[in-house]
Predict the structure.
Amino acid sequence: MFSFFRPFLFNLDPETAHDLAIKSLKFNPLPSKMFEVEDEQMLNIELLGKNFPNPIGLAAGFDKSAEAYNSLLKLGFGFVEIGTVTPLKQFGSPKPRIFRLVNDQALINRLGFNNDGMDLIKDRIKSNGKQGIVGINIGPNKETKDQKDDFCLGLKNFFDIADYITINISSPNTDGLRDFHNQEKLTDLLFALNKTKKDNGTGIPLLIKISPDINNNLIPEIANAAIKNNISAIILTNTTNGNRDNLTSEFKNEDGGLSGGPLHQISTNMIKKFYKELNNKIPIIGVGGVSSGKSAYEKIVAGASLLQLYTGFVYGGPSTAKRIKKELIQILKTEGIKNIKDAIGKSV
């Protein structure tokens, strides 16, 4: 059905199409059994104190305000990440702010953390409950006087309802946010967040999401700060400001973060570097250009324990997770691997 409707959707402005998708998902039209696959137990993995039915997650950015996460879980995703959520409701950047690069199987966005704010989003999650593993990605408001304090507010608000919380220090669309990749500033932030956890008596897993545009010399510093401050996993990577040279779309020079196919090799290379540096002390969630079983497997053997996608879902439609699961299981069988965990880091 998606292949039939896709030309219509792709004739719409990308943000209009996205809003329509969210509205459609609210109706929960399709049973989850439709998106199960044979031998899916081969993809089960224990991580962050949870049993993930499969490692294919939906990245933050699609369901920013927790409007459709349960319906998205029904589409076969192993987990869904909501957000990015800021303390106060935020409109984000002026429109237009999402661009499809169809020939490049990519998107560029400069949304700027548009969301309904943490109070309304928390009420929505409490009202709707969770039918699977749901993480919450948090960030600061654009006009805040203290970005670190905004992160602590997000943690305080969501620790009792999220399965994990992601600290988004890597969006290219919020001024000063990527400064937190600096070791001193990152350590200061993580210390404050761990104090917030202690003050609230919570052991919720804290994750950090990293930019693909950092210099290699920052990798050991970030890895060291993450280990010392009890970070539960590292998400690699967010969108990139660079890598435009080989793109063919008319929108290739739009400001914003580039995601999708052109990011695949960049993020996979970074996963390999962090995997070596972390030495199995912290797991990695791989993001960037995941759109098939092959691209998923490449990130897993590079060192990712879980995966997330966004652009691949936009281009592939509701059956994306199911298709990737089937292809991934077939690769595991071909390689003689009984469970996905045995493939992690295999090529490093």
Observations:
- The chain has a mean pLDDT of 94.
- The two ends are 40 Å apart (CA to CA).
- The chain is about 35% helix and 15% strand.
